[in-house]
Write a structure and sequence with these properties.
With 480 residues, this protein is an alpha+beta fold. It contains 10 helices and 12 strands. The protein has 3 domains: 167 residues, no CATH class; 87 residues, Orthogonal Bundle (Helix Hairpins); 150 residues, Heat Shock Protein 90 (2-Layer Sandwich), CATH 3.30.565.10. Helix 1 runs antiparallel to helix 4. The two termini are 47 Å apart. Its EC number is 2.7.13.3.
Length: 480
Amino acid sequence: MTPPTTTVPGPFSGLSVKLIMAITLVILLVEVAVFVPTIANYRASWLDDRLRIGGVAVRVFDTVPDVADLPVEITDPLLQSAGALAIVYRRAGQTDLITLEAVTMPTQAHTADMRDRNPLRLSADAIETLFLGGNRMMRIVGVPPGVGEAVVEVIMPEAPLRADMLTYSRNIAVLSLLIAGVTALVIYILAERVLIGPIRRLTSSVVAFKRNPENATLIISPDEMRADEIGILERALRDTQTELFTMLRQRRHLADLGLAVAKINHDLRNMLTSAQLLSDQVATLDDPKVQRLAPRLVNTLDKAIGFAQSVLDYGRQQAAPPRPVLVDVAGLGRDAAATAGLIGHDRIEFIVSLPDDFMVMIDPEHLSRILVNLFKNAREAIDSDTAEKDSRWVRLSGVQAENSLRLEVSDNGPGLPPRARENLFVAFEGSARAGGTGLGLAIVRELVEANGGKITLGAQAEGTVFVIEFPTQTSQLAAQ
């Protein structure tokens, strides 16, 4: 399938053409709806005119005792003026007939009774005349003015009526097209100025900005005086483009800076590793001052190397999508605790407070890294705590809530300091210990969100508790 073009249509293509065609079509449909009763009224008026002429002839009949005695010099002009072959006059049980000279009366005729003015019947007869008339004879029946209650019948060909109706229809069609065209043009000009033009301008700005989002001159300049939806959209687009421009420029700067830092950090780590090897050799000397200062030097170098390594690890984080499977949380949690140095720790007890069949649908590698980071943070916090306590523990627990699956990693260590709480999950800002990078929690948040969950800091009387929630559509509790 060919993708749609990104070329912005001109003023007479695209949405503009659709608008003109839609307006014209609607007007023509309205004209068609109006045309049927209009042509029916035209036909009725035409037939009424023929009846009125017939009424004039009837009044002439009344002036003579015997219609048969009227000369053709009088009757033929009357009939010809009505376009009739014959006129029948019925009154008080008497019927009179006058015909053109040497005319044979038709045996069949289509009756148009003008005494019945039902609109539906008039409309149906008009449509019938347009499509089926032309070769038939008509018998027009009615009571024209000036003849009392007498009934007049005019017998004539239907062809003249149909010809006049076709001419009238053609004129209506031309007028309708003219009205539709002028109306569509006027509405198009107004719409082009108020709607289509601004939309085309918005489209052009979006397409151009998409091609080169780092060009600030392509940011749209909205009409600040416009308060309708278009004005709001223009200002929102301006703000969005400005934010994207700023973000992309900052991202490029950070990428360049990150590359430089990574290179520096790599060389620095190598130098620190060499320094660590030298410090290990110095620590074997018998000098008391060296023995006193060497552990501090080694510890400082270990922290520096750890910092450099964590920065490199964070920079190498890959954005591979998770591959969720059913994971035994208890078993994976024990493996993560062993990796984090909790299993076999002489001061810390690791507790698993969930059943062995507690399962979650998640990427197992991601969950392992999440738990390892949280367990390491808990172990380091407890190791650094100098307060006297009867027991030290780190607990992994979980519950199935109504709409989510909930995991908790808690400890009874010293808790988080205020600065760490304010910048929790922010790289290089959320560390709870001196010399830390805060990258562990930043990585944990990214992994949890990549699997459709969220992580928050829970409330606990002492220590720290992290709460991880996964929605029911991406997690499940399986009982085996």
